[in-house]
Design goal:
The chain is α/β, with parallel strands linked by helices. The protein is built from eight helices and 14 strands. The two termini are about 30 Å apart.
Length: about 300
């Protein structure tokens, strides 16, 4: 028998949270979000959550206020005597800082993992972490969902002949290989050189490109520099078309301009991060139904492995 479940949303993901709640079959719980004149955040639950399972939904993309608001919501739930507190992060910010790759740098992903648990989270639910091993940063259960379960049916519906799946960099080869195996497609791996973060100096590709319909696969798109450079390079080398599938549409800086001016046919993303503007080249597929289904399974102690394609 399912215990009483309450779903609450942070201010950054209200639209997605409402869709998750609707798919789940419940209304979002009532909360107050208040900012002092200096920007300090205060949150409070407007209904009793004592002894109940509380799911707090908030993506932690910049600004850092989104992460701080989530931490405050978790702390408030803990102090209100919630039975279980599940932090639902459709997009886990700071995941790119997952290792010490140069001297004297922070491991941001580990720090965020520690803060979530300290604030009161008893479980974490998220999607397409930048690196799978981030799950090991937690001492509490982590439900790591994959957007491949909604992306793959869409790619299949396109019925693209001569399909090839591409990884935009060496680090994405595992993800691209999983897509290629499922779709029975060829695979291409791009190699890029950077002088600094978000700036690609040089790019080449390993694999057959000419006469192929290419689908680039990545966990997130930030400035769009890598994807756009890869798309332009592949079209110059004779590709029939280039699309990109990216879970988290961070899209900062000149990303929308870069995508619009690139040779990308289409960029397919999810709604884990709200789009800042509409673009004719960007298609959004919702993850609401998937999260609602997994929340239901978690509450009923049912297996969620059927939701994993990768």
């Amino acid at each position: 028998m399912e215990t009483d479940v309450r779903l609450f949303s942070g201010s950054a993901t209200q639209v997605l949270s409402n869709q998750i709640a609707k798919s789940y079959g419940k209304d979002l719980g009532q909360m107050s979000h208040y900012c002092f004149s200096d920007g300090e955040i205060q949150v409070s639950y407007d209904e009793s959550i004592r002894g109940q399972s509380v799911f707090v939904i908030q993506s932690t993309m910049p600004p850092a206020d989104n992460l701080m608001e989530l931490l405050l919501m978790l702390d408030a739930a803990k102090r209100a005597s919630a039975k279980e507190i599940i932090a639902v992060l459709p997009y886990f910010g700071y995941a790119r800082q997952d290792r010490k790759d140069q001297p004297r740098v922070a491991i941001g992903a580990k720090l965020v993992a520690d803060m979530l648990a300290l604030a009161g989270a008893t479980r974490v639910m998220t999607m397409d972490l930048h690196a799978d091993q981030i799950q090991g940063f937690f001492d509490i259960p982590v439900d790591h969902l994959y957007a491949s379960s909604i992306f793959l049916p869409y790619v299949q519906s396109l019925n693209l002949p001569h399909l090839t799946i591409a990884a935009p960099d060496m680090g994405g080869s595992k993800r691209a290989n999983a897509y290629a195996k499922h779709l029975k497609a060829e695979i291409v791996i791009c190699y890029k050189q950077r002088s600094k973060a978000n700036v690609v100096d040089k790019m080449t590709a390993i694999g057959e490109i000419e006469g192929r319909n290419i689908v680039l696969v990545d966990d997130l798109v930030d400035t769009g520099g890598t994807l756009c450079k890869a798309a332009d390079m592949m079209m110059e080398r004779g590709a029939l078309s280039v699309r990109a599938v990216c879970t988290h549409a961070v899209l900062s800086g000149k990303a929308y301009e870069n995508i619009h001016n690139s040779k990308l046919t289409e960029l397919i993303v999810t709604d884990t991060v709200p789009l800042k503007q509409v673009s004719e080249k960007i298609k959004v597929i919702s993850v609401a139904e998937l999260f609602a289904k997994v929340i239901h399974s978690v509450q009923n102690y049912e297996s969620i492995s059927s939701n994993f394609i990768m």
